[in-house]
Design a protein that fits this description.
The structure is a single chain. The chain has helices at about 10-15, 40-60, 90-100, 120-135, 180-185, and strands spanning about 25-30, 30-35, 65-70, 70-75, 80, 85-90, 105, 110-115, 140-145, 150-155, 160-165. Strands 3-6-8-9-10-11 form a six-stranded mixed sheet, with helices on both faces. A three-stranded mixed sheet has the order 5-4-7, covered by helices on one side. The protein has a two-stranded antiparallel sheet with strand order 1-2. It is of the alpha+beta class and about 190 residues long. The protein has a single domain, classed as tt1808, chain A (Alpha-Beta Complex). Strand 4 and strand 5 form a beta hairpin. It is built from five helices and eleven strands, in the order αββαββββαββαβββα. The radius of gyration is 17 Å and the shape is globular.
């Protein structure tokens, strides 16, 4: 049986990689991982969270910006993830404008992942440890299958997690005045 060798990419190779289509890739231990298109519910939840956080940033006149699934975050020597949504500082936004590839090397203020049916371990285990190592202060895991939202807060290098369900109001350290329930998020 003939085995095909998998190409290993450095982080610079990943930055330089050009795909002929509109596909997105994450870099995981030197391997390009194609990201499948989101489900319809996934896309609806993403749009809702984007709109709500953008409005909250504007209402509070914060020097932040929200970016949906189009900015990568370097999480290791040969790792880069593309969260479903991130909240960044104005300084990070200005830096991104100068980069040939929209990939942050500094932690965003908040990362949000919406769990896909086929790979819940990515969000609950792997990204959780990568985001903690990068010191992202707050990480949300929105899980439509389990009907819950977990808000993880970085404490001494590890995430403390609080789960919210149904009519629970999401308690976010970054958005302390947010008035949003799990049900509102999961039923956009």
């Amino acid at each position: 049986m003939l085995e095909t060798a998998t190409q290993t990419y450095s982080f610079q190779d990943y930055l330089d990689f050009k795909d002929s289509g509109d596909l997105k890739y994450e870099l995981l231990n030197g391997e390009l991982i194609q990201m499948p298109p989101a489900s319809g519910l996934h896309a609806e939840i993403l749009c809702l969270i984007y709109d709500i956080l953008k409005a909250e940033i504007q209402r509070l006149q914060l020097d932040w910006a929200v970016r949906p699934g189009n900015v990568g975050v370097r999480t290791g020597i040969t790792k880069s993830r593309i969260p479903d949504l991130i909240v960044i500082t104005e300084t990070q936004r200005q830096v991104l404008k100068t980069l040939p590839s929209a990939i942050l090397e500094e932690p965003p203020l908040l990362a949000v992942e919406i769990v896909s049916v086929n790979n819940p371990d990515d969000d609950y285990r792997y990204k959780r440890s990568e985001y903690a190592a990068l010191e992202i202060p707050e990480y949300w895991i929105i899980d439509p299958q389990e009907q819950k939202i977990s808000v993880l807060t970085l404490v001494s290098g590890f995430y403390d997690s609080v789960e919210f369900r149904e009519q629970d109001t999401i308690n976010s350290p970054s958005f302390t005045e947010l008035n949003l329930t799990v049900e509102q998020v999961l039923n956009p």
